[in-house]
Amino acid sequence: MVTVHPISEILGARIEGLDLSERLDASQSQCLADALHRHGFIVLKNQSLTAAQMVTFAKGWGRPSPHVIDTFHHPEDANILILSNVFKQGKPTGLVDAGTYFHTDYSYLDDVARCTILHAQDVPAAPNGTTFANQAKAYADLPSGMKEKIKHLVVKHHYGNRDDLNQQSRSVASVLNPDQAKKVNWVRHPLVRKHPFSGQAALYAVSGSAFGIEGMDDEEALALLRELSAHATQEAYCYTNNYENGDVIVWDNALLLHSAPLIDLTRPRTLWRVTVLNPLGV
Ligand SMILES: [Fe+2]
User: Nearest-CA neighbor of 134 among 224, 234, 223, 34?
Assistant: First the structure.
């Protein structure tokens, strides 16, 4: 039997009773989806998935979409991005830092991500976790005047971290090579977005890829985005989830901002990641 155990009042649930290497039936999949939309992220402990099994699980959520950084795709399946600080024969085996600032995965694309799935392969002892911020609660707590002001605004997004463009910094967005850079363009998304499944309103990607607002000069737009970002990443909306080997975590990109840890480069850390778009028609 599948059971759902909330991790904190603000975010997160642990799911027990499932082996993800086996195909899920419809009621199990629905239970996971309901838990994700309610709690923002779900964790399943002690899993051991092959690359193919991880991608099969991911396809249950929607359409896996390979990351623009194609340098570190898993050799058995390009839908998996390897996050790792391990070097072999002097070469990196994965992407070392992946979003060490608050952002939303794929908010720089037209087709935004439904969820991101990580499978911890080899992680050091805690603290090693991702910090998540609940953007539905952050939106709900805004003063009514601010809600009125932002309700129809459209944000201009581009790949990158608007608050750190220094390519030598570890909180810059992972640097693209010229071919990869050609694949990303300016896109637009509503500032307040209704959740595609629950209908709940949330601030969408106010940190990270948000560089401007349609119809507003850039200085005013950046000031507003930074004000919203500061509000939306307050400790009251955040929870940090630490990883253990075998963890599978799924987070809801329509509901959360997240920030990856600045990891200790001397301690091996490898995770697999798949990012999933909404199913067609959603
Ligand atoms: Fe991310």
Answer: 234
- Residues 133/258, Cβ–Cβ less than 8 Å: yes
Query: Ligand 1 centre and the CA of 253: distance in Å?
Result: 9
- Kindly indicate the confidence band of residue 200, based on its pLDDT and cuts at 50, 70 and 90: very high
Question: What is the set of domains in the chain, with CATH numbers?
Answer: 3-96+113-121+242-253+264-277 (3.60.130.10)
Q: Which residue has the tokens 């999933």?
A: 276
Model confidence pLDDT, tens digit, residues 219-245: 999 999 999 999 999 999 999 999 999
Distance 208 CA to ligand 1 centre (A): 10
CA 260 / ligand 1 centre spacing (Å) = 7
Residue 237 has what DSSP assignment?
Answer: G
Contact 129, 241 (CB under 8 A): yes
Q: How far is the CA of 102 from the centre of ligand 1 (A)?
A: 8
